[in-house]
Amino acid sequence: MLECVMILQDTHDVKTFCFQTTDNSWFRYLPGQFITIELEIDGKPVLRTYTLSSSPSRPLSISITVKANKDGYASRWLHENLKEGDKIKAHGPAGLFTLHNHMADKYLFISGGAGITPTLSMTRWLFDYGIHTDVHFIHCARTPSDIIARRELESMSARVSDIKVAFACEEPDPYGAWTGYTGRLNQLMLELISPDYQDREIFCCGPAPFMQAVRDILNAAGFNMDQYHEESFDAPIIEEEDRPDHDDVIIDDDAKSSVTFTKSKKDTRVQESDTILAAAKKTGLHIPSACQFGVCGTCKVKKISGEVHMVHNGGITQEQIDDGYVLACCSNPLGDVVIDF
Questions:
Q1: Is residue 101 within 8 Å of 114, Cβ to Cβ?
Q2: Quick one: DSSP state of residue 219?
Q3: Which of 291, 257, 287, 293 is nearest to 272 (CA)?
Q4: Distance (Å, rounded) from C-alpha 271 to C-alpha 6?
């Protein structure tokens, strides 16, 4: 049985709930693990898993950091009803998403939104133990006001040179200056923030599309995915056999594709590892381009049919992608593709 002893407001829709045992026992767990709490809502038991955002180096209490999602039945109840002095049942800890299972000299922690909780726990543990471990910490949020534990992370980074922190926000606050990275995390940002990421053990947590984007970046860069570990919001991993098999697109150098340019009435056979831009050059066509890294958006063309795998760096909006546009410089054809050019 846990007793809520403190509630902290982290952002406008995120709270941290701190608990102690009713008999003042100490807690033992690994940083990054989760617990399952049992709530009684409308007379019915509701079970939810939450990662511990606290560190086992501070064993007198544990904390969960919870975002009140619009459709979150339990999360909204916690925000609106749980108060100091209330008692709840909890089970655990459990989970394999912890640096203790993959000890290394250098880490890269990548998180999106409320997915910061396990990487925050691991960073707090490393900071408290004073171990000289090289950590690059990247957190992505919608706005600067949505960054959880921003001041604490900046303070840890200021005091310990081994911990380097970077934030990326999709957009700035309406009435505040933002000098950090803007936009969604991409390969260019990753290389600027952590130039040696290829040598690091990477831990990633966030919404499923966010983690898919991170895996796409790493796969495109030829990263050794044995050094990549992630935790899902929907299905926390308890046992090794629970790990999902990701259906990620891996470009096959031996696979052939066909690219047709309708307006120019030209077509060609290329390898999957060739881009649409390379296919155009092979036929003698000139698609205007500049950076050739998915940043500037100069090579934007419309795809009429077929599938491509595109890993860009901010040179195209989601609305344009939904309308069928791709960046020729960073789009690999998968099978037969028809381009309006």
A1: no
A2: H
A3: 257
A4: 58
- Helix or strand run (H / E) with residue 309: strand 300-310
For residue 83, what are the contacts with CB-CB under 8 A and spacing of at least 6? 4, 7
Secondary structure (3-state) at 197: helix
Domains in the chain with CATH codes? 2-94 (2.40.30.10), 99-242 (3.40.50.80), 256-340 (3.10.20.30)
Q: Which amino acid is at 209?
A: P
Residue 307 buriedness (CB in 10 A; 0-12 / 13-18 / 19+): middle
Q: Read off the tokens for 285.
A: 């066509």
Give the pTM.
Answer: 0.81
Question: Rounded distance, CA 21 to CA 5, Å?
Answer: 10
How far is the C-alpha of 36 from the C-alpha of 41, rounded, in Å? 15
CA angle 185, 212, 191 (to 5 degrees): 35
User: Which pLDDT tens digit goes with each residue over 147-187?
Assistant: 999 999 999 999 999 999 999 999 999 888 898 999 999 99
DSSP tally for the chain: helices H, then strands E: 7, 17
Own/partner pairs for 273-282, CB < 8 Å, 24+ apart? 273/332, 274/332, 274/333, 275/328, 275/329, 275/330, 275/331, 275/332, 276/301, 276/308, 276/326, 276/328, 276/329, 276/331, 276/332, 276/333, 276/337, 276/339, 277/328, 277/329, 279/333, 280/328, 280/339, 280/341
> Which residues face 310 on adjacent strands?
331
pLDDT band at 265 (very low <50, low <70, confident <90, very high): very high
As a whole number of angstroms, the distance between CA 124 and CA 253 comes to 42
How far apart are alpha carbons 247 and 208 in whole angstroms? 13
Q: CA 161, CA 135: separation in Å to the nearest integer?
A: 9
